[in-house]
UniProtKB/TrEMBL annotation:
Subcellular location per the Swiss-Prot or TrEMBL entry: Cytoplasm
InterPro entries attached to this UniProt entry: 6-PGluconate_DH-like_C_sf (IPR008927), NAD(P)-bd_dom_sf (IPR036291), P5C_Rdtase_cat_N (IPR028939), P5CR_dimer (IPR029036), Pyrroline-COOH_reductase (IPR000304)
Protein name: Pyrroline-5-carboxylate reductase
The species this protein was found in: Hominenteromicrobium mulieris
Cross-referenced SUPFAM superfamilies: 6-phosphogluconate dehydrogenase C-terminal domain-like (SSF48179), NAD(P)-binding Rossmann-fold domains (SSF51735)
Gene Ontology molecular function: pyrroline-5-carboxylate reductase activity
Gene3D superfamilies: NAD(P)-binding Rossmann-like Domain, ProC C-terminal domain-like
Major localization listed first in the record, in broad terms: cytoplasm
Keyword tRNA-binding: no
Amino acid sequence: MKNGKLGFIGIGNMASAIIGGILSSGTFPVGDIYMYNPHAEKMQRFTESGCVACTSAEEVTELCDTVFLCVKPQIFPEVLRVIAPTVAKKNADDVVIVSIAAGVTFKNLQDALGADRRYVRAMPNTPLLLGEGATALCRTSNVPEEDFARVRSAFSCCGVTQEIDEAQMNAVIAVSGSSPAYLYLLAKLTCDYAAQQGIDPKTALTLFCQTMKGSADMLLNSGKDPQALMDMVTSKGGTTFALLNVLKEQGFNEAMISSFEACTHRAEELSM
Ligand SMILES: NC(=O)C1=CN([C@@H]2O[C@H](COP(=O)(O)OP(=O)(O)OC[C@H]3O[C@@H](n4cnc5c(N)ncnc54)[C@H](OP(=O)(O)O)[C@@H]3O)[C@@H](O)[C@H]2O)C=CC1
Ligand SMILES: O=C(O)[C@@H]1CCC=N1
């Protein structure tokens, strides 16, 4: 029997962003959110909001019909071993296991918890915390629409979601999961340069962040592709041309592509 309860195992950066986003949106009753983390203090701010702290991963799995595994890929074997007996006691229809881990495959989950269980993989990102996340999702073929919609709503209440094939899950990490880091790097480099030139750091950050937001809106809503938008900015013989030329000369494009490949490759290595 399904009870609508959402359980989270591993309350670190990402689970905190997801739970924080869910709480801000009010999409799920706060008392339906269960969680477990070895260091209990990490759950405190959510228990203060009305979420329920459990004393073990088994307890979360026993009490909830949608279980989000939010530990590091390296901890997965241990957590899967711990929850396997509890998952085995449930009817296959009564539990959906959601993994947000980089690289951990459906095969890894099925080998540990059973091929007849229902699985969803998600690749979210930390802006979920502000309701501005981006999450790629995929499911095993036995996950019915109703169960998938429920999992999806935990992510879509705090950002956009897109369903993709499992074969694309490692490549998509460079697009949603990891990509905030290179955008923050760009912000840091830009603002550090501005500060060196005597521009007030807050002023620079405000200008740069609005530029990222506005550029994202142009990409989504102007009807123009990235190259056309770059061309609109680039006057012949002007400043943007000079900027892009140095990036080209110094191998920026190749470095970015190599970094995406490294990201995907690392996810493949993290598979169990
Ligand atoms: N950070 C990100 O931006 C994103 C992360 N992910 C994925 O999310 C997952 C979690 O990443 P992230 O939140 O950054 O990692 P964190 O290290 O911040 O969180 C992991 C949490 O797991 C807890 N934990 C450790 N061992 C156990 C255990 N045996 N049982 C239950 N909980 C345990 C840790 O608790 P304690 O500290 O007390 O040991 C910690 O709070 C990873 O698989 C990652 O691939 C996906 C997309 C984006
Ligand atoms: O760095 C990581 O491995 C995780 C997965 C995506 C973002 N953070």
